[in-house]
Amino acid sequence: MNYGIVIFPSKKLQDIANSYRKRYDPHYALVPPHLTLKNVFSADDDQIKDIAGKLSVISKKYDPFNLKVYKVSSFQPVNNVIYFKVESKPELQGLHDDMHNQNFMGDEPEFAFVPHITIAQKLSNDEHSDIFGSLSMLGIDHEEIIDRFHLLYQLENGSWTVYETFRLGKEQ
Amino acid sequence: MNYGIVIFPSKKLQDIANSYRKRYDPHYALVPPHLTLKNVFSADDDQIKDIAGKLSVISKKYDPFNLKVYKVSSFQPVNNVIYFKVESKPELQGLHDDMHNQNFMGDEPEFAFVPHITIAQKLSNDEHSDIFGSLSMLGIDHEEIIDRFHLLYQLENGSWTVYETFRLGKEQ
């Protein structure tokens, strides 16, 4: 089964992201707006229990933190993905690193971690320049507290369901 | 903000339900297949913290239980909704009742609790007879263990995001 680990931001930020995703992101109907901590990976039922246990330990290492979204950016020329850029934070980097080390699943991160919330993807080069031009002008400036992350699994139709929520911090 | 409380069944059962929902349920893209424990309700940020606390207490009262889906049924003539009928269980009834009593939010259940997973809705009378005819013949027979439920909230586009997962049982 395919799994992934994400942060869902607040309804407010999700609604803003969806106002763009509706038109520019073919994954709009498959998953709510999110910040990916760990990309899609495959695990069986036993492995995922072990992973859920490790995520529970990781979630207790980090306190809730401030998420700041401060501009519209793009991964071009690597690919035509437009996103809300999220300010790097020790908690975000720590969560990502803990999910990509030898003790977790033994896999290395594919890319340097650029925390982001995708708002447009699978664009042609022309679409990309047009849309990136207008979205950059509109801009984004938003802050909120993140206090949880989610382990998701993927259905056959490509959509994602939450398997479990992990709250950050030691009070739990 | 709008909230709801549901059980997401296993990937296997969700995939079966989606094979029908894709054609017959306009909510297909808004939420994965689910068994509703508490229908949509409105709560503000303070209320939902209180409710999440109460759900945590409720989740510890019930152990994981066997969910049995044993036939395709319909709510006609009340409305043209076709669903997988779920066998009643003390745990299911208990979860539902605890979420509809004076100490929870003070609201009464709207209907008697008929545990089900919707696979078709918003059908005309003619569509309903056709589809119900064929789906009843196909039937359904599936069992699995349920060990968690989810508190969801609704975005402006009508789709649902998980706010928190609650695991059943005392070991947590």
Summarize the structure.
Chain A is an alpha+beta fold and 172 residues long. Chain A has a single domain (2-167), classed as Alpha-Beta Complex (Cyclic Phosphodiesterase, Chain: A), CATH 3.90.1140.10.
Low-confidence stretches of chain A: none
CATH superfamily of chain A: Cyclic phosphodiesterase
SSE order of chain A in H/E notation? EHEHEEHEHEEE
Helix content of chain A: 25-40%
Please tally the helical runs of chain A, counting DSSP H or I stretches of 4 or more residues.
4
Overall, the morphology of chain A is: globular
Query: Could you say how many structural domains of chain A there are in total?
Result: 1
CATH fold-level label of chain A: Cyclic Phosphodiesterase, Chain: A
Rg result of chain A: 16 Å
In terms of DSSP E residues, the strand content of chain A is: 25-35%
Tell me the number of strands of chain A.
8
- Based on secondary structure, the structural category of chain A is alpha+beta
Mean pLDDT rating of chain A: 94
CATH hierarchy class name of chain A: Alpha Beta
The spatial strand order of the largest sheet of chain A comes to 2-1-7-8
Task: Write up what this structure looks like.
- Chains A, B: Belongs to the 2H phosphoesterase superfamily. YjcG family.
- Chains A, B: Pfam families: 2_5_RNA_ligase2 (PF13563).
- Two copies of one chain form a homodimer.
- Chain A is of the alpha+beta class.
- Chain A has one domain (2-167): Cyclic phosphodiesterase (Cyclic Phosphodiesterase, Chain: A, Alpha-Beta Complex).
- Helices cover 31% and strands 31% of the residues of chain A.
- Chain A has helices spanning 11-24, 45-61, 90-98, 125-138, and strands spanning 2-7, 35-42, 65-74, 82-86, 116-120, 142-146, 148-154, 160-167.
- In chain A, the strands form two sheets. Chain A has a four-stranded antiparallel sheet with strand order 2-1-7-8.
- In chain A, a hairpin with a 5-residue loop joins strand 7 (148-154) and strand 8 (160-167).
- The two termini of chain A are 28 Å apart.
- The mean pLDDT of chain A is 94.
